[in-house]
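Please, structure for the following, as tokens.
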Amino acid sequence: MPRRHHSAYTVEQSDFVAYVRIDQDIKQTAWKEVGKRFREQFDVKRVDSAVQALFQRRKTTIPDTDRKGRLQFDDRDQVRMIKVSVTTDWKAVGLLSAYPERAIRYSWVTDKDKQKVKEIGLFRQQQLDDATERQRKRRNEQFQPSPQN
């Protein structure tokens, strides 16, 4: 049977599956329910096993944070990433824990969950914006002609 070619999944679609499966505690729910919600949300025809495979491919590398949930950056202003085990750190790879700055923007995240992560989500988004600005300034400085003496 020829292989079907679907467009690649988006970050939002991957986040949705993690949110439904982890943050909404549907771990024990059949993948059939997760797939149904996915198809309803994104109006795409993906079989349940494809949605499950998307979840299994989701990276177990998440942003490194301090005890207050603030992002940690390297000397190039890139977010430091850490590897976690899905079996021992199940909640860590959920959308609300790993990417609260994205969770607060999605229409499909419940208001209750958005409220839980709003403060840290807004703070982390500001951290990311500030890091991007510092990177931009460094790039611009590299291309500035040096003053002639």
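Residues 111-142 form the longest helix (32 residues). The beta strands are 61-63, 81-83.
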